[in-house]
Amino acid sequence: MDRRHYIIPIFVPHEGCPHNCVFCNQNTITGNTNLVDDKFVTRTVEEYLKTIDRKNSIIEISFFGGTFTAIDIQKQRELLSVARDYKDKEKVDFIRLSTRPDYINESILSNLKDYNVDIIELGVQSMDNKVLKLAGRGHTAEDVYNASKLIKAYGFTLGHQIMPGLPGDDFKKDIHTAEEVMRLKPDICRIYPSLVIKDTPMEKMYLDKVYEPYTLDRAIEICKIIYGMFKVNNINVIRIGLQPTEEINLGNKLIAGPFHPAFRELVEGSIYNDMISSIISKNYKGEIFIEINNKDISKLYANKKHYFNYMKANFPHCEFIVIQNNNIALENIIIRFYGKVENLSLHNYFLCKYKHNSAMALCESDLHKI
Q: For the chain, which has fewer Cβ within 10 Å, the N-terminal or C-terminal residue?
């Protein structure tokens, strides 16, 4: 029986962060304005542990929000000592934190080792220095290279977070960022298409018409390409799209941008239907049987069957018959039509797609459609 993975999130909103990035209002993004101290961490962890079956679980304490390693060192130790205590007592398995690339050095990493931290996620956002400057990040791409190499040298699990569609960004720069991330070989990555949040400098840029966020369709297309690039290079994409909170909803504190509460499912749904369409001739007429694991059916039918119905419309002389089969491996599909059987896997689909095409060429060919 597979053990379920639980994350106990400790949001440290904007604490320690030395810059005000144009996209950032941490209280809005995290939905958290509480004072975070050792008592808060203990209380939060205990509340979560009451609801988790320890025997069948992998449990992680994760410090999100501000720049953790820029917090006063005594405060870092206060918070981490609680997490380390739970890990030492085998009540949790991992400790994770997020920080900026320019707040990583050997002294910082040695301290994190002392507190048994396992995973460090870097807010990379972009690998284009002009974009980083316009975003008010206060660091360069070189800082990302240096921090990433140092984190891996110290034996931590390395994570990257990137934000396609920042001010000054375009599709080529997004692809460049993805290519540079691949060079650094993080273990995990999050892809957050840029959103315009209320009470941020980016809101003013948007209202002044000097910045336009990606549409939902464009964000999906670029994220499909980046996801494929990472998939082929064995980078685990653990999230696509910002997690919805009461604050992050269109019409509340979200002003504009490609937000959807199930953004990842839209990306995967579009990919699944692209994958199926890639092997069917336009002239084919007849039944097409699609066998898929029931855990993947929501991807095939994402967004109220939007992509599935689009595929059906492209093949008007075909009848698509979907069969749920739990013996099919996850991220795999079996297609039966015209006496043929095609075994498709997401990984092999991307591998084939990228084998003879550059990511930039794919970006330009895919995006002309929208």
A: N
pLDDT for position 162: 98
8 Å CB contact between 66 and 26: yes
For residue range 101-145, what is the model confidence (pLDDT) as tens digits? 999 999 999 999 999 999 999 999 999 999 999 998 889 999 999
* Class in CATH terms, 4-261: alpha beta
- Tell me the backbone φ, ψ of residue 97, rounded to 5 degrees: -150, 160
Q: How many CB atoms lie within 10 A of CB 315?
A: 18
User: One-letter amino acid identity for 307?
Assistant: Y
Which H or E element spans position 104?
Answer: none
pLDDT tens digit sequence for 79-99: 999 999 999 999 999 999 999
Note the pTM of the prediction, 2 decimals.
Answer: 0.90
Task: Please say whether the beta carbons of 68 and 99 come within 8 A.
Answer: yes
Taking the C-alpha atoms of residue 93 and residue 117, their distance in angstroms, rounded to an integer, is 10
What is the residue extent of each domain of the chain?
4-261, 278-367
Q: Please identify, in words, the CATH class of the domain defined by 278-367.
A: alpha beta
**How far is it, in rounded angstroms, from Cα 192 to Cα 240?**
6
The average confidence (pLDDT) of the chain is 90
Number of helices (H) and strands (E) in the chain: give both, helices first. Answer: 14, 13
334 forms beta bridges with: 291, 343
For residues 260 and 289, what is the distance between their CA atoms, to the nearest angstrom?
30
pLDDT at 66 over 90: no
Tokens of 5: 């993975």
Q: What angle do CA 7, 107, 35 make, to 5 degrees?
A: 45
The 3-class SS string of 196-256 reads EECCCHHHHHHHCCCCCCCCHHHHHHHHHHHHHHHHHCCCEEEEECCCCCCCCCECCCEEE
Residue partners of 14: CB distance under 8 A and separation at least 6: 24, 26, 27, 65, 66
Whether the Cβ atoms of residue 276 and residue 335 lie closer than 8 Å to each other:
yes
CA atoms within 13 A on the CB side of 354: 20
